[in-house]
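Data availability excerpt. The first of two example chains:
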Amino acid sequence: MLGQPVSMLIPEVVGFKMTGKLREGITATDLVLTVVEMLRKKGVVGKFVEFYGDGLKDMPVADRATIANMAPEYGATCGFFPVDDQTLTYMRLTGREEEQLALVEAYAKAQGLWREPGHEPVYTDTLELDMNEVEASLAGPKRPQDRVALKNMKASFELLMETAEGPAPVQEDKLESEGGQTAVGVDNSYQHPSSQPLEMNGEKTRLDPGAVVIAAITSCTNTSNPSVMMAAGLIAQKAVAKGLKTKPWVKTSLAPGSKVVTDYLAVAGLQDDLNALGFNLVGYGCTTCIGNSGPLPDAVEKAVTEGDLTVASVLSGNRNFEGRVHPLVKTNWLASPPLVVAYALAGNVRLDLTKDPLGTDKDGKPVYLNDLWPSQAEIAEAVEKVKTDMFRKEYGEVFEGDDIWKSIKVPESKVYEWSDKSTYIQHPPFFEGLREQPDAIDDIKDANILALLGDSVTTDHISPAGSFKADTPAGKYLQERGVESKDFNSYGSRRGNHEVMMRGTFANVRIRNEMLDGVEGGFTKFVPTGEQMAIYDAAMKYQEQGTPLVVIAGKEYGTGSSRDWAAKGTRLLGVRAVVAESYERIHRSNLIGMGVMPLQFPEGTDRNSLKLTGEETISIEGLSGEIKPGQTLTMTVTYKDGSTKSCELKSRIDTANEAVYFQHGGILHYVVREMLKNA
């Protein structure tokens, strides 16, 4: 977009061999969650992953896309598949011309890119999966790599509850020991000291720990995969026929990644059944998966808040990081679209869907998941209804827009006309004070620590995309400008306004700053006074004093999606460097692109070995000379008692291009200077 090359160290390529076939009842989502788990354990950050093996022969492109799209979740720079007959089948289905198909096949074969049976390419390293061993799975409660077999979900949640709250009550143990759950016993055995009375639509019931309060068929790849979408529709069809209903406390939604999905669900006669269970179309694209789930019903929100209930969302998305789906939902489980429907019917994750009934039919008989789950033959028959004309129609009109889009008045000016009154788009300050030549970079002297963070801090922790409350810095900013809390929308929707986004940086409701004991949320200690305050407020006070800032973190800093505001917000808060044990590739690159130095502790040194509390000052030497890839810098920690300790840090500027960007204060500054130079 900026006309710059993507520079990286030559990556290792890890081969992931796939053999066998998925068993009856196992979905592409189950497969991808298994792949994510395996690759995270293997460790593929900064590497390419190529999938190969004869198991690919019958794997459609939609399934391959589901796997490749989750590369950020398994940490790879990218995941990719070879070209073969399945590629051509997909191109033909989606309306490509035969001439183009012939060209693709000829080129791929000439270049050695075509998958041949039995071919074993040479890789840096390999791992293997027999797809026959994949089982029905979810992942959670807060990381995509934490796979849980469907049969173990109940036990997994009970363990989570016990870890957080102590052993389960004796009454529940007694119910469980007397022969398990029945159609009646299911509801009774959920009873818990924190359970809350609930009235929904005139019906009196109870909200228990584990309640599924959000069930969302959402995500660009899962909801563009015909096999899992048809499976979800078929489950809905069978459930409606038996008289099952979604539990009243479950907020349901359907947000396909493509309008073609709407066409084929309608042609298959499945959309009406999904609607009957509450899975109505809410829009296309990113919804629940990125935090756009919207508010919970008032009664549900009140019950969750008053009981401090640990409730759940089940969604067919890619990411379930803390605080991402909804601020009040502490556990979030990734699952296939058909399992999302099943959990909406069951209403609670404290249920073993492999054994326990989802509900009762019109005659009062228990209905089990096996009674609803479609066969591969049924799914295949439904998928046959997906036709080429659907793709040609929808994508032929993709740039047309509806009447609302066409009615937007657009100024004819060649440059954007900024409005001071807008709370959605404001002129960002990135180029304020920009000079023809970059300023010299100084060493960091006596910086304060803005945040002291642990492992697996995600870009969602750093820059949340979801909703926020009135008492947050972003909420206060909008209220001061006449925006009511019901109109706040989300951080993601206001990413054109730096004033909102910098206030939202490190403001995730689940982030834990180790400078404070037992405090969740975007807070820190303002060291000069010892006050606890919002991270944004503290950063502004440090800026007024001219104090530089650093962030200290553990392993896998910046995991997750390539949230550009995670780097932009960090820069605007006045953070000059991040010191972590390891980085995810995309966020490391983005920090450099915004002029923030990513530094890495040497093996055996970390915030714990240095006994950091956050009240120390940090000085970093080695920035004032020539910036080189991978150079060694020295960090000196000055403790409260005046004692000091030094250690070496490795610069995670990995390439010469990144060094140039950093010297210019970031890629934006570099590009503007180059444009001016060549004007």
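And the second chain:
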Amino acid sequence: MMDRGRYAGAKGWRAAGPWLGAAVALGLLLGACGAPDGAAVGSPVTGTVTYRERIALPDEAVVIVQIQDVSLMDARARVMGEQTIHPGGRQVPFSYAVPYAEDEIDERHTYSMSARIEDGEGNLLLISDTAVPVITQGNPTKDVEVVVVPVGSP
């Protein structure tokens, strides 16, 4: 199945198709962020999600990759961009390209990649537990590896 990306301003929305979804997501981003016409959408942060364990994911697994603003202590991280991947039985590594609004990036802030893998019912299977800095302060936007680890049994 095709990977789908979305912007933080499009909460709760899922793409109907890859081309239509991209066009609608861009429109929602620009509208929800209050960005002026011609707002700069940065090159996406790209990389892979992987794990070290020798386990196979269920066919219905879902991978969610986010760019988060983690600058504020004791506050929930702000999601700057998100991509949902439906591997359809494929196994790691999973490539991602998470788009974000370049004009919403504050060079003084710290941004980090986050990933989680859920089963088809939304139960958390694996999650990143280490900060992966991106975008600002000399941190990369390309070839960023996010390692996820298993969570405890339910």
